[in-house]
Amino acid sequence: MIHLPLAAFIQALTAYLTGDLWLGAAIASGFFCGREHAQAEYRWIERYGFGLRANMPWHGGFQSRVWNIKSVLDFALPVVFTCSVAPIVG
Fold it and tell me: How much is the pTM?
């Protein structure tokens, strides 16, 4: 799983450039949350929207039926990891 090393890299790079581990955690977490939400929207469009984004309601990407364990872990693990590292290291 590439998400954890990439989240750690984003956090470390941000901390190096700004001196703020929490900012790095926020940037890494925001990146992966946004990425997984966008993928959930694409799954909704494919399954229920007949391939058209215009058919998706505003809440389509939030519906649990387009999320699976992998997609939840792909955003939850980087968030938990980076938010755990910040208070320990910082």
Answer: 0.89
Handedness of CA 46, 49, 55, 57 (dihedral sign): negative
Our count of domains for the chain comes to 1
90 vs 22: CA distance, rounded Å: 8
With a cut of 90, say whether residue 27 has pLDDT above it. Answer: yes
Bin 52: left if φ > 0, else alpha if -120 < ψ < 50, else beta.
beta
**pLDDT at residue 90 tops 90:** no
The parent domain of residue 65 ranges over 3-89
Cite the DSSP H helix spans in the chain: 3-18, 21-48, 69-89
Under the banding of pLDDT at 50, 70 and 90, the label for residue 20 is: very high
The CA-atom distances, in angstroms, between 28 and each of 12, 52, 63, 66 are 10, 30, 23, 23
